[in-house]
Structure formats: structure tokens, C-alpha cells
Amino acid sequence: MRILHTSDWHIGRSFHGVDLLADQSCALEAIAELVAECRVDVVVVAGDVYDRAIPNADAIDVCNKGFEAIRAAGAVIVATSGNHDSPARLGAAATFAAAGGLHLITRIGSVDRPVVLSDEHGPVAIYGIPYLEPETSRVELGVPQARSHAHVLDAAMARIHADIAARGVPRSVVLAHAFVVGGTATGSERSISIGGVETVPLDAFAGIDYVALGHLHSPQTLAEGVRYSGSPLPYSFGERTHRKAVWLADLGPHGLVGVERRDLPVVRPLSRLTGTVDELLTDPTFDAARGHYVSAVLTDVVRPVDAMRRLQTRFPHAVHVEWQRLQSDSALPYRARVRGRADIDVARSFFTDVYAEPSAGEMTWLRRALAAAVDENRADPELPLEETA
């Protein structure tokens, strides 16, 4: 049996305010093409199908079309809910959907009720563990004393192992949405730590042929049969050097026989560019980033006016701008930088930092404002005339 492992679709997510639905649709189409090309039997989605608990209509439409394309390509789908999903909403029509080959496992009480599929070697039991928040899952799992993610996951795995033994199935797959020790976050994941340790140990999954993990957004191998597929698209500029991928896991008659990485196409690259606005607009070095999502770090001496609009004339997909003024004393604490300087000099520097070099008229306004402040201090004996640094 061939299994394609994916996760963290986050359908409906935006990127610095930019709608990603078209990009996500392309990524799901690429996954469906892989299903057909590689003769995949089962696609597993290990949580965070949507980016929010109540997805909008357009996000639902993109997700449904993705499911339909994968199913039409020949694969059964097994998906669980992640910490971004609403289990009740994602699994609302689970029984009906299962008849069409889409199995949605979103209930904690269903962790030991697998989807059982068969190939020429016999049955394979595929178990889904939805995201387990300790406070809301410990009672349902029968461990009211549990307070950590590790404790509730152990309880879920105990139920799964008991069911495997009772069924006598020789091959098993588990989907889990969790932060496993040894994994590395990318920065675009939402923390799942609420008053406790969010990680769970790798050995919690001992005895399972293949564990399809979700939550972390880059492809990672924790053990031969325990892996993160990561998200199909980058969701932060920290992921700009990552190549997104899925795993193809093959099960033979006695368990896992091999895992192959298949890279996904880059829908739109990400670039982080540094320079003055004029350099970014004219330097041919930056030509390759014209069609990328761009984050620009501006090094102009004076904060540029209308920088985003200007940059988008060359980089139409620029989505983020920050100003990083280069100055020799920038590492000094603010108090040390202003010590011994006249009030008007401090005010002038502040005006320059947040807007531009003040004109003669603006300097006159600043002097009048400072003089009025001094007069007010002298008129009110409760206010100090000056403060020492």
C-alpha cells in the first residue's frame, strides 16, 4: 500500500494580508497530480486542514475541490483536525463523506476506531489522533489527572495499541498533530503550549509502522517511520529557503519497506531584500525577485515616504517593508545616546527618525513647543524643571 503523507494545508491563510487561496489551490492540484503519477492508494492529512476554526466560503470551496481532485486521482483520503481546525465543523458530515472515500477523524473518542483498508497483503489500520488539548481531552481519554500533552497522547496511544491487539492487524499507521521532541519549528506555527510543556516524546509512537505527523511546517525525519511532511506552502519569510515536500511511504506485507521524498512545485518564491529604496528599484541584482513575495529591509538614512507603493512598481508582490536605519550608535541604550544633548537636538533626531529631516519652519515649531513645556514646568511647582539621565 502506498501512502502520501501531507499536513498543515491551512486553507484560508493570508500572507502579510495577501490572500493565498489561489496559491493553495495550485498546491492541492500538484498533490493530486502526484497521486495519479505515483499510483497512491491513500492520502493522509495530519491536521490543520483549515487555518481557522470558522473558514469562509471561499476557503471551504478550495478545500473541497482539493479533496475532489485527490479522490478523482485514485486515492482514499484520511484527515484529522489540528489546533487551527474546529473538530465539530471539519467533521460535520464525516459519516456521509466516508462513503465517498473521505474519512474525517476529528473526535477524541474515535482515536481507537481506525479506517481499515486492504491491499494484496491484507488489512492496514489507519488511526487518526486529532489535536489533543490536555484540558479538554483528558477526561474523555479517561486520564483526569493528566496535565501535559505527553500524558494525553500516551492515553490515546494506549487505546490504539489495545485496538491493534484486539483486531490482530499486522500493519498500522497513525496520524498525529503534535510537537514531537526532535522536531524544529519554522516560526509560522501557532504555539500549542498553554501553561505546560507542549512537546511529546518520540517513543510514544513505538510499535507503529508509519507515523504521519502534522503541526511543524518543514519536512523532517525523526525516525525512519516517524516524519513531518510540513505545509505545502511557505507561511513565513523564515521558510523562504525551505523546499516544500510530501512523503511517499510504502507498506509491504510486514510493515514499512521504504519512504521517498517528493518535492512540491514552488508556486511563488519568497525573497528578503536589503538596500535603499533607490537601490531596490534600480539595481539589476534584484531582477530575479520581480515575481516573488518580497520582504524589504530598507537602509535609507531617512525613513522613505510611501516605500511600499514605490517598491510595488518593480515588485508587485511585495508584502512587507521595514526600515533599518544604519547608524553607528544604534546599539547604545537610548538614555546613553541622549545624555548631554540639548532638548532641541534630541527632538530634531526624533523627528528625523520617524519622519524626515525637519525644515526651518518645523524647527521653529519644535523650539516653540519646547519653550512652552519649560514655561509650564516653571508655572507648576509639582513638576520637576528637569530630569537627570
UniProtKB/TrEMBL annotation:
Complexes and interactors: Heterodimer of SbcC and SbcD.
GO MF assignments: exonuclease activity
Annotated keywords: DNA recombination, DNA replication, Endonuclease, Exonuclease, Hydrolase, Nuclease
Calcineurin-like phosphoesterase domain mapped to chain residues: 1-219
Domain of life per record: Bacteria
Pfam families the UniProt entry points to: Metallophos, SbcD_C
Keyword set includes Hydrolase: yes
Family: Belongs to the SbcD family.
Identification of the protein by name: Nuclease SbcCD subunit D
Function of the protein: SbcCD cleaves DNA hairpin structures. These structures can inhibit DNA replication and are intermediates in certain DNA recombination reactions. The complex acts as a 3'->5' double strand exonuclease that can open hairpins. It also has a 5' single-strand endonuclease activity.
The organism of origin for this protein: Antrihabitans spumae
Residue ranges constituting the Nuclease SbcCD subunit D C-terminal domain according to the UniProt record: 267-353
InterPro entries, per database record: Calcineurin-like_PHP, DNA_Repair-Maintenance_Comp, Metallo-depent_PP-like, Mre11_N, SbcD, SbcD_C
Entries under SUPFAM superfamilies matching the protein: Metallo-dependent phosphatases (SSF56300)
